[in-house]
Amino acid sequence: MREKINKIFVYGTLEKTEFFIDLISAGEIRYVGSGKIRAKLYDLGEYPGAVEHKESYVYGRVYEAQNIDKVLPLFDKYEEFYPDNLESSLFVRKVVRVTMENGESLKAFVTFTAKNVSF
Questions:
Q1: What CA–CA distance (Å, rounded) separates 79 from 57?
Q2: What is the pTM of this model?
Q3: Range list of β-strands (E), the chain
Q4: N- or C-end of the chain: fewer Cβ atoms within 10 A?
Q5: One pLDDT digit (tens) per residue for the chain, 119 residues
Q6: Which CATH number is 28's domain given?
């Protein structure tokens, strides 16, 4: 049986957006704790973007969605991730392992900078 993942790892400026604050206010997501992923953060101008990287960490926060099937499409739209059109996507969504501050490990969705973004 496939594991149902209902957590989202958030980094950068996303938590300060009206979109994100509305999700919390509506009870769609709740804070779980702080953690880190194996990635490197880049300044893309208006916002940061992470790229998977084995020797660096990106620190962020984990949120749990009450209904992940409802919340993921909202994140996808906001992050300009188009699962059926990766070439047009600004970000891509993946499942990664997050190391929490308390040392525990869990799986969560995260958006990484799409390959078509140049540095």
A1: 21
A2: 0.90
A3: 7-10, 29-43, 48-65, 91-100, 105-113
A4: N
A5: 567 899 999 998 888 899 999 999 999 999 999 999 999 999 888 888 999 999 999 999 999 999 999 999 999 999 999 989 988 888 999 999 999 999 999 999 999 998 655 55
A6: 3.10.490.10
